[in-house]
Amino acid sequence: MFQLIDTVHAPDRKKWMQACDYRLITSIQQLWDYVGPSIETKKPVGADTETNSLAVYHPRENFRIAGYNLSTSPGSGVYIPVGHLVGYEKNLPHERVLDVLKAIDAVCETFWYNYKFDGEAILRCTGWEPRKWQDVMFMVWMFDPNQKRFGLKDVVRRIFGFEMLKYADVTSGKVVTFDQLDPTEAVNYAGADADFPLRLAALQGVQEALRRSSQVYVLERAFLPVLRRALRTGTYLDGQRLQDLRAYLGDDTTGLLAEAKQAVFAVLGREINLRSQPQVSQALIEAGVNITEKTKGGGVATGKEVLERYVNDHPFVASIVKYRELITARDNYVNKLIAGHEAFGSHVWFPFNQIGAPTGRMSSGGEGDVEESIEKGYINVNVQSTPDPEKKPYLPDIRSAVVAADPATPDADQWAVVSIDYEQIEARLAANLSREPAWIQAFKDGIDIHARNAQLAYRDPTIDKDSPKRKKGKTMLFALLFGATDETVAEHGGIGVKEASELLSNFWAAAGTLAKWVESTHARCDIEKTVTTWLGRVRPLHAFYTSGPGAYSMREEAHRLSVNGQIQGGAADIFKLAAVRVDNMLTRNQWHDACQVMLFMHDELVFRMRKDMVRIIVPAIREQMETIQIKDWPVPFTTDAKFGPNWSEKSGLTSFDKWLNGGAPTEPVPSSPAPAPVAQPVRPSRPAPPSLPPPPPTPAR
Predict the structure, then answer these.
(1) What pLDDT digit, counting tens, does each position of 449-508 carry?
(2) Which residues partner with 110 through β-bridges?
(3) What is the DSSP letter of 603?
(4) Which of 242, 178, 200 is CA-nearest to residue 111?
(5) DSSP string across 565-593
(6) pTM
(7) E strand or H helix that includes residue 53
């Protein structure tokens, strides 16, 4: 018989467990008895793992699976211990449990929640992983992408109103790993982890979202192995360079920060506590900066986003923004990278989140404070927002500390960092969606799109990419992507509001087809109250249509998101599709030993690549990224490739094209003859879509 676990004494907020049948499996025969009917009828099975650590991608971690959770129907769940240190006599033989899991996988879909973790855990510990897996986290995200928290406990609370057991409830607050619990203590916690993925996947709304955006789910499922491979690869840091950066930044008494602090005082004419919000607010008032934003207490707002709107109004604002950006660079980047380097050495890992944003773009970070993230095996840095000295020269060159290999290894100089990114992907996508003739022709003629926008805004066809007016043209694209107002365009363009209004008026009049596309997008949003990308990624916008106070501004926000969602969301779809194609190509050519993805930026893939293969692999990657063709879009996608000893535009990366043509200022790749060419895929006129798995079936209720 199964061992029944007592739930009568659960807290009131967990009464839902009293209706659940969560059990401990004590023999292989009991396990076969439980899953046998599902195998015979090919019914879906909910599944999960319990492990002794969350650092699944950290190779030096003593990572083990403590047990498996399975559920064959809502309200049902079993826990199968295989690696407990306490109560070890209850463990079942891991190999025989694996035989059962393989039998399930042969005929049944298994529904997991966060397969990025569970799939890697099983592969790492057994060398095998399920083939028919489905990730319910993806499904829930597609059902309601506007949410910010997608942990299973958050989702169950939000959708079902149930409070799942927290780990502290199971351990009574003791600091122990899961394998240090007796298996009988873990059953309720573990059983729910397999039960609720099955329940969530069967919800009508989730199934409707899955049908509506089936190709998006297929893409996300195909992208996950690419992400897992990159997380396994990790990234490499130059520890000495990080120490140099910290010394360069200094603190309030030394280095760049001290200089920036004194510059603030020089502009202000006196010293204040720059960390005191009231003192900074008072200084802004005294300086005559007319900041309209207020704090809840009625004082002048001094947040970063607020002050950046006023950097052109007074030197004091510009100087304090610079000081704060340097503080952020030190505290949120350099110091965290050094802490990670001290914990892991030169080989480190950054957290990348596949479901990071409603548009489908990835995000990085969000793994807690320094200690929490290191415990999970990550450096909790938003690497996608690394300060860029190319845009603001006073910022430290943090990217120069990201290198291709551990500097201490003998063959470190045989590797290069390679960055391949889409050139102006959002503008190209907007041109394809809107069919704006001025943009299509500009891309066909090789004219810089920002220069073309400046030509339209200034009504001056002689403006080129070297003109100072090009920056104003760049704000036109900003206005399209984010629905910027005259005031916002004036702020970003460093011009007056009147001039910004005139430039915008000229631009929209000259780009009439684009303007009509924007108008039609707004009108469709008012009817459908959703935004849908070219691949079918849907973001509901119903919450922005209200009849109460602020209804007009809410509707305007929906309009902004309807345009932004199609462009940024569509670009995210293309980027993930490209990453899948690149990974498939590397697999076909058996190049993964010579080329691995280290970082995912929004439209940029960053690789570590053997120098003697750069000449061969880079063109093949660019081909996969550039030959994506959607329907009859007239504007193709192009890429820019750079490579060098580190990931820095300022001090590391060299243009691949210039190097190939003999024009590079440096040559990080040996000048000896290239190795014998490896057969490369023939460029088709319209490449077939990548081989992706089919959408999942509807789980039985």
Answers:
(1) 999 999 999 999 999 988 888 888 888 887 777 777 777 777 666 777 888 888 889 989
(2) 45, 133
(3) S
(4) 200
(5) HHHHHHHHHHHHHHHHHHHHHHHHTT-TT
(6) 0.90
(7) none
